[in-house]
Specification:
By secondary structure, the protein is an alpha/beta fold. It contains twelve helices and eleven strands. The longest helix is centred in the first third of the chain and has 28 residues. One of its GO terms (cellular component) is cytosol.
Length: 303
C-alpha cells in the first residue's frame, strides 16, 4: 500500500474534480462549479486517467459517459470526499473560533409551513449557530449528503434509501383536496359517482411528476380510479395553493401547507373518501459522528 501511495496516482483535488464530472455528467457544469475553464478541467481528467492507467470517462460532442471503472471510482470518491469533509467540519466545530454552521437542504416539495418545525426550536435554543438552507430536488439532496456537502436533508424519500443514509425523523404528511371557492360551490359532494365525474372534468394543478411526492400521488390517484390530467405541473405547493386561490384549478396539497395561507376564504377543502399521505424524513449520513451542534439541531427538529 505504501509503495502504491508514493506513486501518487491522484490527490484529493483531482478526486474532487472527477466527482464533479461524474455527478453532473457535464464538463461545462463541473468546470463552472470548480471555477476552472473547460480546457483546464479536461487536462486534469486526462492526467488522472494517465496516472491510473484507466479510462474513466468517454466524452463525445454531445454527452459524457462514465465507464465501469469510472463508476467504481465515483462511488468511492463520494464516500472519501464526504469523509474528509466531515472530518474537517468536525475539527472546525470543536476547535475553530468561527461560529458553527449547519447546512440543511430541503426538498422543493416542502411548503413554507413545514419550516418552523425544522428550525424554530434550534434557533431559540442555539442562536449562535448559522443555518445555511438550500432548496433542491430529493436526488440532489441525497447526492450532496453522501458527498459531505450538506449535514442534513429533509425530503420525501425514495424507496429504498441508500445504505449510507440514516433517517433521524419521520412523519406522515396528510393531504387535502382544495378548490377555488367559486368552483367548490358547484361540486356534487353528496353523490360519490357524480363527484368523481365532476372531478375528472375540472382543471388540475399537480406537483411535478419527477418528484417522489409526484410519483407517489399519481400511483395513489390510479388506485382511486381517478384520471386527472394536469393543466399545470409545478414543484412548489405554496405556488399551487396560490394558483388554486386565483381560480386556476383544483389540487391535492399538504394540509400543513394551508396553515400559513392568509386568504382562506378563497379556498375550500372538499371531502374525499380516502386520504393521501406521504412520508417526510430528516436524514444524515450513516457512517459519521455528527458534530455536537449538528446533533443538537437534529434533536430539536419538531416533527
Amino acid at each position: 500500500m505504501q509503495q502504491y501511495l508514493t506513486r501518487k496516482p491522484f490527490d484529493l483535488y483531482a478526486l474532487h474534480l472527477f466527482h464533479l464530472v461524474a455527478r453532473h455528467r457535464s464538463f461545462t457544469r463541473a468546470a463552472r462549479e470548480a471555477g476552472l475553464s473547460q480546457s483546464a478541467l479536461t487536462r486534469q481528467m486526462q492526467s488522472l486517467e494517465e496516472r491510473l492507467g484507466l479510462t474513466l470517462i468517454n466524452r463525445t460532442t454531445r454527452s459524457v459517459e462514465i465507464t465501469e471503472a469510472g463508476l467504481f471510482l465515483a462511488a468511492e470518491a463520494t464516500r472519501l470526499i464526504g469523509g474528509v469533509s466531515s472530518a474537517l467540519d468536525g475539527l472546525q466545530a470543536e476547535f475553530g473560533s468561527a461560529r458553527p454552521e449547519i447546512r440543511v437542504s430541503v426538498s422543493r416539495t416542502l411548503a413554507m409551513a413545514h419550516m418552523p418545525g425544522l428550525f424554530h426550536a434550534n434557533h431559540q435554543r442555539h442562536p449562535e449557530v448559522i443555518c445555511r438552507v438550500s432548496y433542491n430536488a430529493s436526488s440532489a439532496i441525497l447526492t450532496a449528503l453522501e458527498a459531505g456537502e450538506i449535514d442534513i436533508g429533509v425530503l420525501c424519500p425514495p424507496s429504498p434509501l441508500p445504505d449510507s443514509i440514516k433517517v433521524t425523523h419521520r412523519f406522515k404528511d396528510a393531504f387535502e383536496l382544495i378548490a377555488p371557492a367559486s368552483v367548490a360551490a358547484k361540486a356534487p359532494i353528496k353523490r360519490a359517482a357524480s363527484f368523481k365525474l365532476w372531478l375528472a372534468a375540472q382543471s388540475w394543478l399537480h406537483i411535478a411528476p419527477e418528484t417522489n411526492t409526484g410519483r407517489n400521488l399519481r400511483r395513489w390517484l390510479k388506485r382511486q380510479q381517478l384520471n386527472l390530467p394536469p393543466a399545470m405541473e409545478l414543484d412548489s405547493f405554496d405556488l399551487i395553493i396560490n394558483l388554486v386561490a386565483s381560480g386556476f384549478g383544483l389540487a391535492f396539497v399538504p394540509r400543513r401547507a394551508l396553515a400559513l395561507y392568509r386568504r382562506k376564504e378563497s379556498i375550500v377543502t372538499l371531502p374525499f373518501p380516502e386520504r393521501f399521505e406521504r412520508d417526510l424524513v430528516a436524514v444524515t449520513r450513516t457512517h459519521r459522528k455528527l458534530p455536537r451542534h449538528v446533533g443538537q439541531f437534529v434533536e430539536n427538529i419538531l416533527f
